[in-house]
Amino acid sequence: MRDVFEVRTYDGAGRLGELTVPRADVTVETPALLPVVNPHVQTLEPSRLQSEFGAEIMITNSYILHGSGDLRDTVLEEGLHDMLGFDGAIMTDSGSFQLAEYGEIDVTTPEILQFQHDIGSDIGTPVDIPTPPDVEREQAESELNTTQERLEIAEGVDVGEMLVNAPIQGSTYTDLRREAAEHAYSTSLDVFPIGAVVPLLNSYRYADVAEIVDSVKRGLGGDAPVHLFGAGHPMMFALAVAMGCDLFDSAAYALYARDERYLTVRGTEHLEDLEYFPCHCPICSDYTPAELRKMDDQAAEDLLAEHNLHVSFGEMRTIKQAIKEGSLFELVEQRARNHPTMLDGYRTLLDGVDRLEASDPASKDAFFHVSTESSRRPEVVRHHERLDRFDLDGEILLATDRGALDREFDERWAVTPPFGPYPPALSEAYPLTAEVPERFERQAYAAAAEGIRRLVAVNPDAEFTVALWDWPDDVLETLPDDIRVESTDSYSEKTEESV
């Protein structure tokens, strides 16, 4: 079917988009969170997910429905939407999770897709093979081949207007993930879930997740909606959106509540350890931790589940606003400081800055330099690349203080870490309007020095002088040998004479 996803706004690889779901006759704004609803045990009524939390889409398991006598008859008779009481879009899983857990299931791709169509699912899923992380390559290749065969089988099943997922496997082999993405995108299927990452998420291997997502995104087109299967903790939503993921499904809100675990954007707390609730949702405003501890187990679980949903949907709204105003990277940098492995994930994301820069807007409201990682953002890389456009000759001064030297130059350029050199005429243009600290870390100076080296390399006929007061000596030593470097001492002497 395809042609169901449209991007409205980018920030890096993060994006606000619209996923059209024809069978449900709805358009889902992305990034979107899909609460997981267990058809046997519903922590919250699906109608409340829509009315109280704003859920436009949810996910349930068609394999459980298919194998349950009473529920199977009911859902075939009433339809999935009426049985669950949910008017938005409904995605259904195929049993691949059960396959990963128990080793086999008794349904084929044509059978489960037909069943999903018959019960009124809006987005169905074939039976793929979720290959765990770190398996032998031979196993990953073999199971990927099986998944790809099943995607091709899925293409041949007549499911009308139901969208169909094309799961992308390949374990932790990034080349297989990219190959899988290219194959999935070549099919006529519609939505592209990245599968079998839950073990990585559970063990906080965010750098590995970032590498996998980067590989997948390089194999997909820009019109491909990407679902990060099993990513349900709000602490990593901003990072995953910045990677380029659009859809997330969360069973965590209910599973964590069952164990009296309280979700936050900083991580997970245990109810027994809380004296105060660090949240302003309706649950945390109406109750104290002590009051929940005194309740019977089911009542406390239900309220914790509601809180977990509130914080999850609240984080999605925060992310959407950040994309809208062009501050997603600032949000990710804040979230990355919550856990060392989150920082690993963010740094790995920036290793693929060429992909981020390709879709990052050329202009935004503001750039805030708040960490060492700010020096590696797409805006800095783009500025360095655009230095190639300048054709300079004569004597050029590059200075942190444009009035530092009295003698005449043909041109005087400013230098600001982490961007490096730029003509004064661009000082009011984004991103050179950046809010930067007075005290830079070494990485910012090093990034600026890279910009200087690039400008010098493309202008061999010009003579450059740099007046970079208070720059680290080891960074100055990385500049080309033919640049004249005005020392800090000479600047100090001039300053004293002027006084």
Automatic annotation (TrEMBL):
Reaction it catalyzes? guanosine(15) in tRNA + 7-cyano-7-carbaguanine = 7-cyano-7-carbaguanosine(15) in tRNA + guanine
- Entry-linked InterPro entries: ArchSynthase1/Queuine_TRR, TGT-like_sf, TgtA, tRNA_ribo_trans-like
List each coiled-coil range. Answer: none
Cofactor dependency: Zn(2+)
Keywords for the protein's UniProt record, in alphabetical order: Glycosyltransferase, Metal-binding, Transferase, tRNA processing, Zinc
Which residues does the Swiss-Prot or TrEMBL record annotate as the active site?
A: D93
Cofactor: how and how many bound: Binds 1 zinc ion per subunit.
Chain ranges of the tRNA-guanine(15) transglycosylase-like domain: 13-340
Superkingdom classification of source: Archaea
Tell whether Methyltransferase is among the UniProt keywords: no
Pathway it belongs to? tRNA modification; archaeosine-tRNA biosynthesis
Positions that bind Zn(2+): C279, C281, C284
One Pfam family hit: TGT
What the record says about family reads: Belongs to the archaeosine tRNA-ribosyltransferase family.
Q: What is this protein called?
A: tRNA-guanine(15) transglycosylase
Which organism was this protein described from?
Answer: Halapricum salinum
